[in-house]
């Protein structure tokens, strides 16, 4: 069943929209303006991130790396991570299990 989820402000210069969800999996779209940040955080969910557009510098458990369009990576459960947007862009994140805090 298709459901339209609202676009919400996740942080300054960042919006989030859940695209689809099930108790076992959630997919969400994040749009970033240049300089916007996804603050360092952790959660029990395994996360897969796909860079749809833009350029980002990620921190993952104290390691920094840059990603751009077409790149993807996995963030393990409870790993501390965050990002800075270097060029306006969009990330598509999958979470397992679902992020109930996003609903």
TrEMBL record:
Residues 29-86 form the Cupin type-2 domain. InterPro entries: Bacilysin_H2HPP_isomerase, Cupin_2, KdgF, RmlC-like_jellyroll, RmlC_Cupin_sf. SUPFAM superfamilies: RmlC-like cupins. Gene3D superfamilies: Jelly Rolls. This is Cupin domain-containing protein. It comes from Maritalea mediterranea.
């Amino acid at each position: 069943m298709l459901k339209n989820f609202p676009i919400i402000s996740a942080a300054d210069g960042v919006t989030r929209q859940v695209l689809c969800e099930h108790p076992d999996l959630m997919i969400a779209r994040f749009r970033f303006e240049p300089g916007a940040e996804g603050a360092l955080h952790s959660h029990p969910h395994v996360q897969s991130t796909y860079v749809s557009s833009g350029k980002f510098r990620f921190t993952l458990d104290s390691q920094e790396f840059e990603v751009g369009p077409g790149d993807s990576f996995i963030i393990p459960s409870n790993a501390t991570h965050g990002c800075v947007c270097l060029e306006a862009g969009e990330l598509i994140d999958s979470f397992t299990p679902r992020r109930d805090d996003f609903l």
